[in-house]
Here is the input.
Amino acid sequence: MKRSRGFTLVELLVVIGIIALLISMLLPALNRARESATAISCASNMRQAGYALKLYQNDNKGMLPRAYEGTLVWAHQLRPYIPGDRPYEKIHCSSIDLEINNSSTLTFGLNVDLIAFDLSMFKRTDRLKNSSEIILVADSIAHSMGPFHPYTAFMLGPEQGGSFAAFGVGKVDYRHNKTANVLYLDIHVSAERDLPKNDNASEGNQHAWVGIR
Here is the structure.
């Protein structure tokens, strides 16, 4: 009776090498698929935030929520318009592993040029002409790590030299494979790679932030 021949050490090493090569080829594709899935989930959450903002506007004469009301930032003022026990967790980017609470921690920033800090600053965004081009909300992160948490950037505004260069103001975060999810004033969401900076540098930059009246 013939005895079966087992693998030699060389053959075993070749098989292990082939498996390792296949894994190294598949992992980038799997990572891209996972990143794509989280980007889609983030966009869905952002769109839901947009619908809630619209409902808020309908109840408040076309005005967006204030930047913060007491200790509650704009997203948490939308609680009545989002179902569930912890609605503010739905206004959050799925790719960021972060406990969202009812303070200033947020992964989406609202365009600071469209919102108010006090009653004298309220703006009617429903009168703007280019709503499909005006940035309403985007993935956000603090301008610098500094003394604040990187995800306290619940507003999007200039880094310095302006009255809004303070706590809570951040920049667009291109966190999804070098793109950022952006919610526009007409409530469509788009993945953007290079947005104009909100730095008051020129009118060409500003139409995407302050709009055309």
In short: The radius of gyration is 23 Å. Residues 161-165 have pLDDT under 50 and may be disordered. DSSP finds two helices and eight strands in the chain. Helices lie at 9-59, 203-206.
